[in-house]
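> forwarded from #structure-qc
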């Protein structure tokens, strides 16, 4: 076990669940497609009297009519079908001649259902899996929080356990999968946040440049951490106030 990296999702039934669902959904989609084809098809009744059946070439003419002439007639946008004596074809109305859209709605609904079940199984936002762009920011945040981050945590934990070990981990040598730069960052929209992160000493200039997708400057000043005078301990503020009060009293005297 120590020679391999073993990754296992928390839900062991996901694959079996999706496999069974896909079989059922595949059958439903096939049925809906077949229903759609039938609803848009043309149907009719061919009446053949004794005059036609008594012809010695009846079978040859019948095969040609059914396999060739009727096929061209149904496939053509505009067509005329000449019939021999003894043959009478009557187009049937009803379901066979209707162009129904309900079957398309059924296929769309089933496809949408498939996406939703798969998304739920892997904790992916349904809108993101379908490619919807509405409220993409919140959708991407949910995707990172509930789907990507758990996978990265699982990967990092196993690699740290097998390739680094407890001693190296406690000494500061470990792997951390960084997902903070997955999202696209617009520099102009986060410029104020960048200023606050640098002014509070949280990040250096180079660190923020890398996270925003830019290259690090690799200079002494860009690797330093800065903090403005606004960030002070409350004890320091109290000391400065007392010093200011003492200086004022001296000046008055």
């Amino acid at each position: 076990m120590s020679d391999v990296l073993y990754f296992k999702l928390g839900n062991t039934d996901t694959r079996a669940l999706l496999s069974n669902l896909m079989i059922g959904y595949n059958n439903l989609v096939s049925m809906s497609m077949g229903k759609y084809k039938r609803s848009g098809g043309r149907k009719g009744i061919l009446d053949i009297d004794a005059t036609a059946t008594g012809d010695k070439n009846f079978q040859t003419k019948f095969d040609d009519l059914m396999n060739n002439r009727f096929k061209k007639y149904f496939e053509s946008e505009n067509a005329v079908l000449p019939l021999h004596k003894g043959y009478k074809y009557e187009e049937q109305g009803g379901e066979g001649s209707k162009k129904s859209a309900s079957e398309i709605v059924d296929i769309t609904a089933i496809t949408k259902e498939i996406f939703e079940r798969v998304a739920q199984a892997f904790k992916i936002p349904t809108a993101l899996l379908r490619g919807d762009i509405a409220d993409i920011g919140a959708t991407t945040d949910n995707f990172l929080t509930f789907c990507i981050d758990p996978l990265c945590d699982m990967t990092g934990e196993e690699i740290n356990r097998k390739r680094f070990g407890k001693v190296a981990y406690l000494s500061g040598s470990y792997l951390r999968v960084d997902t903070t730069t997955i999202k696209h960052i617009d520099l102009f929209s986060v410029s104020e946040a960048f200023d606050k992160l640098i002014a509070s000493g949280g990040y250096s200039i180079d660190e923020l440049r890398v996270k925003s997708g830019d290259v690090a400057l690799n200079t002494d000043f860009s690797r330093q951490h800065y903090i403005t005078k606004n960030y002070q301990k409350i004890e320091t503020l109290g000391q400065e106030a007392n010093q200011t009060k003492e200086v004022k009293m001296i000046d008055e005297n």
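QC bot note: Strands lie at 43-48, 87-92. The longest strand covers residues 43-48.
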